[in-house]
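Human: I would love a firmer grasp of how sequence relates to backbone shape in proteins. Take your time, and here it is.
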Amino acid sequence: MTEEFNESMINEVQEGDKVKGTVQQIEDKQVVVHIEGGKFDGIIPISQLSTQHIETANEVVNIGDEIEAFVTKIEQTEDSGHYILSKRKLDENLSYEKLQKILDEDGTIEAEVTEVVKGGLVVDAGIRGFIPASLISVNYIEDFSNYLGKVLTLKIEELDQTNNRVILSHKKIEQESLSSQKEDFLNNLSQGDVLEGKVARIANFGAFIDLGGIDGLVHVSELSHDHVKSPEEVVTVGDTVKVKVRAIDRDAERISLSIKDTLPSPFEQIDNNFSVGDIVPGKVVRLAQFGAFVEIGAGLQGLVHISQISHEHIGKPDEVLEKAQDVQVKILSIDKDEERISLSIKDTIEQETDYDESYLNQTNSDDDNPTLGDVFGDKLKDFKL
């Protein structure tokens, strides 16, 4: 009865079958396996023993280990024979099945970096996986050697068993982590908060400040109390700066910042340098329909109302003034609480007249009080009542 059962089992072993066996012998380039129910022993070449590159078979198996493998070929003669087996192919199939399930569920895997090659990293994902350089990190990495031996959490980008292609991404893990950090950061951020950050980038319109995973923008007008033409006049990439949060757009993940608001206001010290009634030099910085804004000191701008620009009537300030023009102004008032200064150009200019004022300086005499006779002379001599 037992012999009939064994003969039946022997006849069923064919190419492509999955068989189970026990390691009997380990040689330099192959492993000999006793196959349960098989007519012959199985041989696993070292190249078919593991999904990873190995130098010797005993790196992955020991005598007595139970092994499952695919039968790739049956070699036999009249007197003897053996099965050619592949443990690697079976492991690859199992790994692909596992990875496909993880990909379907949008999960992650952990894999050790086994090689640093041109263009990326090779990892052991149960099978050989590859991380292209563009998918290693959100940051630019010049030297990949530091990754060797590290275990990375990865997302599966592409899985193609037919072409034995497994593409993985560590960059996506970092992006998801940064996104979560950004969300937490924004949810805990409030308008008016004062933070420290590092200047990450500079553009014509302002400076981007890294607040720790998320950038905020300091517009050029918010860099200093002084008039700034270019951000490079005030900040340099890498500088650590103190900033105040002016506005937050959580949906767009935008933060508006100010360096100027963290600095002392020029109005705090204005009494040390300026007083009402002073006549001081200034520069026209802006023209409006209602007047001109004149800078009289760093961060100190005052308004010259259109009525205070000239003794003559003008329709618009740009009839007599232009931007960047140097002018003399008189300080009419200072409101430190509202940070407003009222100025006058007109009061610094002597009013010109179009008539002779010399008579105003003459002393009183009879000539100053003419009679009717002096005015009309002989024209009244023939007048009768």
User: Anything to note?
Assistant: Confidence is low (pLDDT under 50) at residues 1-11. The longest helix spans residues 87-104. The chain has four helices and 20 strands. The first strand starts at residue 18 and ends at 26.
